[in-house]
Amino acid sequence: MGKFLVLRDAYGSIQVIVSDDNSLVQNINHLPYETVISVTGTVVARPVGQENKKMKTGEIEIQLEALEVLNIATPQLPFSIREYNKAKEALRMQYRYLALRFPEMQRNLRLRSNVLMKMREYLINNCDFVDVETPTLFKSTPGGAREFVVPTRHPGQFYSLVQSPQQFKQLLMIGGIDRYFQIARCYRDEGSRHDRQPEFTQLDIEMSFINREGLIEMIEGLLLHSWPPELSSIKVPFDHITYNDAMELYGSEQPDLRIPYNIQNITELIKQSSTLMDKTDFEHNTFGSYAVVIPNSQDCLINSLKSQFNDMAKKQFPGAKLVQEKVTGDSWNSKLIKLFSEDVTKNIADKLNVKEGDTLFISFGEKADAQQIVGKLRVEYTNVLESKGRKIRSSDYLFLWVVDFPLFSPGETKDTLASTHHPFTQPHPDDMDLISRDPLKVRGLHYDLVLNGSEIGGGSIRIHNPALQTKIFDMLDIDKSQMYHLLEALASGAPPHGGIALGLDRLTCLLCNAQSIRDVIAFPKTMEGRDLMSGAPVPISSEEMEAYHIKTINV
Amino acid sequence: MGKFLVLRDAYGSIQVIVSDDNSLVQNINHLPYETVISVTGTVVARPVGQENKKMKTGEIEIQLEALEVLNIATPQLPFSIREYNKAKEALRMQYRYLALRFPEMQRNLRLRSNVLMKMREYLINNCDFVDVETPTLFKSTPGGAREFVVPTRHPGQFYSLVQSPQQFKQLLMIGGIDRYFQIARCYRDEGSRHDRQPEFTQLDIEMSFINREGLIEMIEGLLLHSWPPELSSIKVPFDHITYNDAMELYGSEQPDLRIPYNIQNITELIKQSSTLMDKTDFEHNTFGSYAVVIPNSQDCLINSLKSQFNDMAKKQFPGAKLVQEKVTGDSWNSKLIKLFSEDVTKNIADKLNVKEGDTLFISFGEKADAQQIVGKLRVEYTNVLESKGRKIRSSDYLFLWVVDFPLFSPGETKDTLASTHHPFTQPHPDDMDLISRDPLKVRGLHYDLVLNGSEIGGGSIRIHNPALQTKIFDMLDIDKSQMYHLLEALASGAPPHGGIALGLDRLTCLLCNAQSIRDVIAFPKTMEGRDLMSGAPVPISSEEMEAYHIKTINV
């Protein structure tokens, strides 16, 4: 018979056998789990019938000859490494060094390391990029409300931790580094937002003398090169879609192409409904109505779910209304008939090709809200169906470029403008004459990269002309004195340039098929920004406060 | 004749020729320097006799056919890219994007990028390391007086910016990542210290199941692999020296082996001098006397230099005295005879083999101070001689491992101890019995890597036994409650481990033969921590102060 123990290291585990007549049996009996040992022995085939097919090393074992205890573990660890799901996340974060021993975390961190290395190889060895480190202690950007500040020994003066190397990478282009990249640490103080971290990592890229198409092609080559070979492969070029089409077909600027149902524009049909249109005071030229049909699913639309969907629509998209219908039996459409009239309802059903068993979601009202309601239900109802065991999404990795975003969005107050992305984005060359005349119609040379419904990157061709940049700052009411160094730099001989940033925490999370970005980060913080292992953040000493010329308030 | 212009990009420059009858001549006449253009033309050999041998592309030129101005530069730039030395460093930092266009900066940043990439390749592809990103927002370390603090939205609670990933890398070993590295951003608030930056970069490495020799060998392989091929080559293994021998032979823990003069211990000779020893109250068992002879150099020891050296010795090493002699003529040694007696002086001259034309420095008093005085003069006087055109140092890159440092140093107050490096260093196994009995005699398993007189890295085998770590914390009077998570982690099954960190700013500076680390950093700050381009640090808004629950004082 004998005793056995399982020896684990970073690369796997193997069974060690001690025969009963071996004096080492006694030592083994008293060893706590997780004790660090060194063994000497002979690798042998396991006896016939005792192989373990679930174990990579299940056909062999080690016959123990000598054993050295290198560091004994305490017998009562907070959780066992063999039962992954039993420890809550908070406990796994408090004892992160134990959680890192789980095979999943080992795999995630190694996959992340390998993908990042492949990216560097592609950029440096294949494309002649220069890896340049830029500062994280910098000056706050105007209106940068989410920036951490760092007091200094200069009384009353603070650094800000950069949200991205945006200014530095443009300055590098102006400085003649024509192909820059950096795997950059960035900081954003977002309070408690789901699945965000106060510090995060992005692959930051900028190139001179490049256009949108060139940049997109470069990123596709990069992802193809660094794609983990164990995942299902990807094809380049990726599909492109305009922002308007994305909203029209998916009700989202981050479409998940794995879901086989598109949303449909039924605005013209609904406009025929005098029962609806006469009763309501919709703005005619921004009115829209959209629908999505999810086949063979009406049994899942239970009442609690319906009311949850209704609440979501009311809260997040108050400009439009939602109707939810289970298509079953003859009178399934009675509510629709009452709302829209019999004719209009029949036309809708015909156009959407509605069948017994389907679930039908219809939204109408402010076009943008109407699009997003059914766009969101397209995804959320799919999640519900998949949680019940139905397979809807393919297991492919479907990338998509979203282009032609509006350059400006309406500002917080009337008649003001905001940047849809940031104030350095180059306007679309075809829309230059609209900048003064009809700015909200101007498209920007911005591009987002979406993977399976998540935005994993975004970038743009930048403004390189100082007069145009000045004009855009003015239109956005940005204090130019704060950005004088950039304007001066643009006037010093700035090449045309553009770039992109990929969010590596999010991308790695998708590649690892992990639940949360916290599962692809070695030492993550909680949603409240706490490190549960050390307790950070913590109070500091009065000497430190004095050195930095600060006092705390509201404590 | 025609007109010409020089076209420059990130990779070099080339001459463009326009014949006088070409209508483009007019355009060229009015183009300010540094304007960004795109040209079309034909590459031709320059006419015989007009080749420029100083220019890489000096044998060819482009005959211009078309020219497009992509971005015109302002005619009055703060300095010209063609006259590197004319702009002071402050101006080059203010207009950093212009300074980056100089060929030296282009070369430095590209060399840095290439060396770092080679390091990554070696570690990941050759040695199976895992690149793990660790947080920079963390908890202050006990007594970490030089840590920047970051206020949070939790009233009165602060992160600290890490000085190094020390705790995280040990926790990664405990978490089963057995070979970790990271090119890590670190932060240290040192006020204005020469050639330091508030943020800096280190190659951070940690390995499990490794001893000192294994780690040293790994680093030697790494440097050999990543060494720039254009520099004179290096040989491994590097020399080793103990801390005691380094002080004895070079009077420094960072010996510059390119200087061919060693210091010499003349303690026993000096102790024969009753004229000296009877008059003074030196502590007999810590008394030491050292000398260094610099051949053929006495003419350079002018009086102003002598008094500068005397001031340095008095200020920095007050425990010992310095005598400086120019060996010339017969009575050169009269001061020595008066000080030490005729016999002793003759013995010294014989032992040191002093010759006409030499310069002789002798120090005596507290041994450590005496060593360091002549150790420092060995380097500084060499600098003086080299500034006068004498070639003393070889152009080799001479690495040296310094080992066997004392684990403890005397603390700030009597009978207290401090860590020579840090409290996680493993004591030398041969000195374990001295820990309680005679702690200042205990050597640590620490190693420093020195290149040409600069410390470029340091590391150690760490303590993995929680009881020993507790004992060391107690001896150092460190608050264990602050380090509880590490002690718990050591008790959870921690492998024996060790690591190292290489300072990449310093190393790259030596590889680039640059004057300052600021010349190998894209956007450096001044010694006062200022970014001269943006003006950071700057005041922040009252909204921001409120959000972070702070007030400024002393403003």
Overview of this protein structure:
- Chains A, B: Belongs to the class-II aminoacyl-tRNA synthetase family. Type 1 subfamily.
- 2 copies of one chain form a homodimer.
- With 555 residues, chain A is an alpha+beta fold.
- Chain A folds into 3 domains: 3-76, Beta Barrel (OB fold (Dihydrolipoamide Acetyltransferase, E2P)), CATH 2.40.50; 103-242 and 399-520, Bira Bifunctional Protein, Domain 2 (BirA Bifunctional Protein, domain 2, 2-Layer Sandwich), CATH 3.30.930.10; 259-387, GAD-like domain (Gyrase A, domain 2).
- Chain A is built from 18 helices and 22 strands.
- Chain A has helices at 24-29, 89-94, 96-99, 103-126, 166-174, 212-226, 243-250, 267-271, 274-279, 303-316, 334-340, 342-352, 367-387, 434-437, 466-475, 484-490, 504-512, 542-547, and strands at residues 3-9, 12-18, 36-45, 60-71, 130-131, 137-138, 149-151, 158-161, 179-187, 199-208, 239-242, 264-265, 287-294, 320-326, 359-366, 399-403, 408-410, 417-419, 446-451, 454-461, 497-503, 550-552.
- In chain A, a hairpin with a 6-residue loop joins strand 7 (149-151) and strand 8.
- The longest helix of chain A is centred in the N-terminal third of the chain and has 24 residues, at 103-126.
